[in-house]
Design goal:
This is Nif3-like dinuclear metal center hexameric protein. The chain is α/β, with parallel strands linked by helices. The protein contains eleven helices and eleven strands.
């Protein structure tokens, strides 16, 4: 198949007009029209090492979530990793395409994948919806903790019958933290004051989703999960909503699974490789 056909399948799933005005999703580097795809390397971020990995694995297409070229390039030299990565991709005839806020917004996109990993049920958009080319989109999703996870938390906790009855309709805040650490493999979860009531209804937004905190409260969410928030945004919500921040990379780490599913649904024999490189620039010591 041609690279153009693969890109068309991705953009049909998450149309580029769904992206935010500040974004730069779509083609980043290379050619798409007449080039046969030898393989697709799927990743969150594009770095020099990721281009090397694509070349090593025989992939002439990289599909990333975060755009390599986000801000204007006034020159292409070797002054920073973006310029060096662009040069390396061009030298090796590797095409780079990014599906960013359009894939965040699309139904079945990044936020739905996070909800799936968390095991949420009855997932739907909150905080506003829009539709482009028949594809529904929204900034965040809201759903409910599954009965299975509520039961597991109740059975695992050494709680009195009275406390168990109190949390029969949801899970305790510390159990939500443990669930997040387990499902997303995070070293720690940043939280505000732990909520002293059952948590059942959970709103979430991958990446930098703090702008939706007010909408999550208005939607009646017991908890709000996102990738990053600033210090002052934690204030004033004690016992109103449980805030859980798990890290930008960690929240979006499963996006490549969406890319793979889309491509293979259209081209079952296509070579799709999920990058083995952890590009998270943040480490926990």
């Amino acid at each position: 198949m041609k690279i153009r056909e693969v890109v068309d399948a991705l953009e049909h799933y998450a149309p580029l007009p769904l992206q935010e005005g500040y974004d730069n999703a779509g083609l980043q580097v290379g050619l798409t029209e007449a080039v046969e795809m030898s393989g697709a390397l799927l990743c969150l971020d594009v770095t020099e090492a990721v281009v090397d990995e694509a070349v090593q694995k025989g992939c002439n297409l990289i599909v990333s979530h975060h755009p390599l070229i986000f801000r204007k390039l006034s020159r292409i030299s070797d002054e920073n990793y973006v310029q060096r990565t662009v040069r390396k991709a061009i030298k090796n005839d590797v095409t780079i395409v990014s599906m960013h806020t359009n894939m965040d917004a699309a139904a079945g996109g990044v936020n739905f994948k996070i909800a799936e990993k968390l095991g949420l049920k009855n997932v739907q958009f909150f905080g506003g919806e829009k539709e482009v080319d028949g594809v529904k989109g929204g900034s965040g999703v809201i759903g409910e903790i599954s009965d299975e996870d509520i039961l597991k938390a109740a059975q695992a906790g050494k709680l009195s019958d009275e406390v168990k009855d109190h949390f029969a309709e949801g899970i305790a805040a510390d159990d939500l933290v443990l669930l997040l650490r387990d499902r997303f493999g995070v070293e720690c979860v940043q939280c505000n004051q732990l909520l002293r009531r059952p948590i059942r209804k959970v709103a979430l937004c991958g990446g930098s989703g703090s702008f939706l905190l007010g909408d999550a409260i208005a939607a009646g969410a017991d908890a709000f999960i996102t990738g990053e928030m600033s210090y002052h945004e934690y204030f004033g919500h004690e016992q109103e909503i449980q805030i859980c921040v798990i890290g930008h990379y960690q929240s979006e780490q499963f996006t490549s699974e969406i890319f793979r599913s889309i491509i293979l649904s259209h081209f079952p024999d296509a070579k799709c490789c999920i990058s083995e490189i952890n590009t998270n620039p943040i480490i926990y010591l």
